[in-house]
Design a protein that fits this description.
Strand content: 25-35%
CATH superfamily of the domain at 40-54 and 87-229: P-loop containing nucleotide triphosphate hydrolases
CATH class of the domain at 40-54 and 87-229: Alpha Beta
CATH architecture of the domain at 40-54 and 87-229: 3-Layer(aba) Sandwich
Radius of gyration: 18 Å
Shape: globular
Low-confidence stretches: 1-5
Largest sheet: 6 strands, mixed
CATH topology of the domain at 40-54 and 87-229: Rossmann fold
Mean pLDDT: 85
Helix content: 25-40%
């Protein structure tokens, strides 16, 4: 039984389509994606490069709009919100982790973790909370180091702490282990599993690593613009 299956979905898409202009014709990337995501669930999405996995994550996170179809957040149409409300959804309800960590090089690890709060207008920020998050991810003594002084795995842990800083309901991770060696990638994936189990945070992870993908509650494949259960 999937986590949270007895409660209303946190995100639900119906017939979600996304096309991009391509010369005289349109490039159809998503062709009717149906997805129901329950609170506390951990799902992985696999598929070949160019299948539209990142595009789907961007739409789920409110970073891009679908060409057609519907996406509901807790039963309400996500894209009927004002731009201000949509920005609040992106910043407080959703955490993002990308293959390339996108840390700001001039800021320390703890300052990078604090960044979502600063964007929200919290001038001082909760440094104690940021420090606790880093400690939980094995970086207790690295908070005052800048990204250039950290290993790739350490940088991705900082990015994960940043994504979790505002206690999002959903974390969307796009190839979070794709730029790491296999051992470090396994460590990051294990941390994500631990966080999901301990906090009930909902995770959607796009990955090319099918071995790691199959440790999720559900492993889905994006194929021909639609989501199907992985073989």
């Amino acid at each position: 039984m999937n986590a949270g299956a007895s409660v209303p979905p946190i995100l639900e898409t119906r017939a979600l389509c996304k096309s991009f202009p391509s010369g005289a014709e349109a490039l159809h990337v998503l062709r009717g994606v149906d997805l129901t995501l329950s609170p506390g669930e951990f799902i992985s999405i696999v598929g070949v490069s160019g299948a539209g996995k990142s595009t789907l994550l961007h739409i789920l996170g409110g970073l891009d709009r679908p060409t057609s179809g519907n996406i509901a957040y807790r039963g309400n149409d996500l894209f009927s919100r004002s731009e201000e409300e949509l920005a609040d959804y992106r910043n407080t309800r959703v955490g993002f982790v990308f293959q390339f960590h996108h840390l700001l090089p001039e800021f320390t690890a703890i300052e990078n973790v604090l960044m979502p709060g600063w964007i929200r207008g919290e001038q001082a920020g909760d440094k104690e909370k940021a420090g606790v998050l880093l400690a939980e991810l094995g970086l207790a003594d690295r908070g005052h180091h800048r990204p250039g002084q950290l290993s790739g795995g350490e940088q991705q842990r900082v990015a994960l702490a940043r994504a979790l800083f505002l206690d999002p309901e959903i974390v969307l991770a796009d190839e979070p282990t794709g730029n790491l060696d296999s051992a470090t990638g396994q460590e990051i994936h294990d941390l994500i599993l631990k966080i999901n189990r301990a906090s009930g945070t909902t995770f959607v992870i796009v990955t090319h690593n099918e071995t790691l993908a199959r440790t999720a509650h559900r492993c889905l494949r994006l194929k021909d613009g639609k989501l199907v259960e992985a073989d």
